[in-house]
């Protein structure tokens, strides 16, 4: 599948993972706004579905890790034990809540000990629907005079289908309402499962990115009885298969560089199949960096780590902390943002 215009707008791109989620609780409008005003090329959001069929920006189907739902007595009876992609989970599941009910919850920082500034916003910020985020992106794009891209990851489509909830139709309907269901919209749809991406490719011309990780297999293929793993899809033959429906791949960083910084052949193999390559997720804290890029204190050399991926030829970096990467690349910042220290 030849690359669309939207997949080639900025190379290499800096993509804010769940917004500037090193500074604000993930997937909040404040996290997205901060990232856009830093100057990122795209924002990334994960999408899950409410009981009434609305797509909302959350990474987890279970809500207690990043919201205050466990402290809300009115929802105590919603606690469930449920099987998600073959594994048992306990907690409060997004598909047991309506959009209006989710609107009463407040976001919490996932890593409060590591990200104390973000944790300082716990209980203050609401959750966001896809509609909310797209409206924010439109407003911020108009404010800055530049087009900001949106990378949308569909989470657990097989699970939601079993719950009677389809992700594709509400996605395309929402994009249509915002005038974004076309190849020049700078919208990219991503996912680990292959079937849902093929369905979107049949119904829309937005860019498609297949996500790959070093372990496991697409859950939809497991359910179908296929033996194809993510590493199979990362092979030259697998990349040719992905090219049938997608414009790019989004890959775990270990598939591109080993801990010593030695590059694999994946980027070159993908480019030979006309697939762009985004790498995820780059984080600033030493805890998430290979030893070579760790430094004394809390933070390591994120800019140096990012440079190693750019030297390997990737087309985009998906990062929790956009500002140090943008500064290292000499990218222009919003004037107000440029005056703040890197930690702010």
Offer a few descriptive terms:
17% strand; glycerophosphodiester phosphodiesterase; TIM Barrel; eight-stranded parallel β-barrel; disordered N terminus; 344 residues; globular; GP_PDE_dom; alpha/beta; EC 3.1.4.46; single chain; 11 strands; 14 helices; two-stranded antiparallel ribbon
Task: Give an account of the 3D structure.
This protein is an alpha/beta fold. The chain has one domain (5-62, 128-330): TIM Barrel (Alpha-Beta Barrel), CATH 3.20.20.190. 30% of the residues lie in helices and 17% in strands. It contains 14 helices and eleven strands. It has helices at 29-38, 99-102, 116-119, 130-144, 157-162, 168-177, 194-203, 219-223, 230-233, 236-242, 266-272, 302-311, 322-328, 335-338, and strands at residues 13-17, 42-49, 55-57, 80-84, 87-91, 149-154, 187-191, 207-212, 248-252, 276-282, 316-319. The strands form two sheets. The chain has an eight-stranded parallel barrel with strand order 1-2-6-7-8-9-10-11, surrounded by six helices. A two-stranded antiparallel sheet has the order 4-5. Helix 1 (29-38) packs parallel to helix 4. The radius of gyration is 19 Å and the shape is globular. Residues 2-10 have low confidence and may be disordered. Residues 12-315 form the GP-PDE domain. It catalyses: a sn-glycero-3-phosphodiester + H2O = an alcohol + sn-glycerol 3-phosphate + H(+).
Which secondary-structure class do the elements indicate? alpha/beta
Elements, N to C (H/E): EHEEEEHHHEHHEHEHHHEHEHEHH
For the secondary structure, the number of strands is 11
* Biggest sheet architecture: 8 strands, parallel, barrel
Mean pLDDT: 93
Q: What is the topology, as strand order, of the major beta sheet?
A: 1-2-6-7-8-9-10-11
Radius of gyration: 19 Å
Coarse shape: globular
The low-pLDDT segments are 2-10
CATH class membership: Alpha Beta
Helical residues, percent:
25-40%
N-C termini distance: 41 Å
Under CATH, the topology can be stated as: TIM Barrel
Family: Belongs to the glycerophosphoryl diester phosphodiesterase family.
Domain GP-PDE: 12-315
EC number: 3.1.4.46
Catalytic activity: a sn-glycero-3-phosphodiester + H2O = an alcohol + sn-glycerol 3-phosphate + H(+)
